[in-house]
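Revision sheet: structure tokens.
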Amino acid sequence: MRRQGYRESTTHFSVKSLIWVAKRTNLLEPEIVKAYLASAKTSESRKRKLVEDLARFYRFKNIPFDRPRYKRIDKIPFIPLETEVEQLVSGMSRKGSAFLQLRETGMRCGEAWNLKWKDIDFEKGAVNVSPEKNSNARQLKVSNRLIAMLNGLPRKYDMIFRNPDISPIESIEHFRRNFIKRRERLAQNLQNPRINAITFHTLRHFKATMEYKRTKDILWVQKILGHKSVLNTMRYTHLVNFEGDEYVCKVARTVDEARNLIEEGFDHVTDIGDMKLFRKRK
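Predicted:
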């Protein structure tokens, strides 16, 4: 996979998948492996990914493999409440909170993980995203809140989040384990198991869905996410019925108050005299 130009993280997790199969059945016997997959209690999407890893492995070993057919099953996305996202961000370490706050950009986890200090334009309040997965490079506006959170982090390395002294895989695995521990503790303290379902990919999906709800502009969402094709964007953007949702409503009497509310994610609803009314989904 390295010779074929696959990313190190893709190679790492493909090998982990093969090890997972090898611990449960005879990896060198494709028909036995297929029988195991047929009875395994795991999702169709997971089986589909395993088949891709197995097919690559069997090609490498020159072992014939008649691939079983598992289809990707589209599910209604889990979209957390804004309050749940805020609780998760607040419950992390300084670095973890800043990392999760990058949710406001809609960038991928790998794109956020590989950010360098030089990618942040503190004067303009923007971040330059180096794409992965054949996406488009893009510059995204960020809030004053995120700029302040980034300014509060130490600048020991060129990388903002990753420790370059250890391997990229080891570094992100350490970060992921700490994130899961803190998330589980927070979900238990708040007695809200939904928080355990929030991942960085969930936050990207959340951004795409909420941005589409706000603008109704699929091309704008495509630009934010960096997709080459709008068809990929449509997989992230689901028409969710927000009727009956609860909102936080606030009033702005000055330009500065209005600007701050917009930076916090509030949408302008209407004007009453000199006052502007804003709301944000809870």
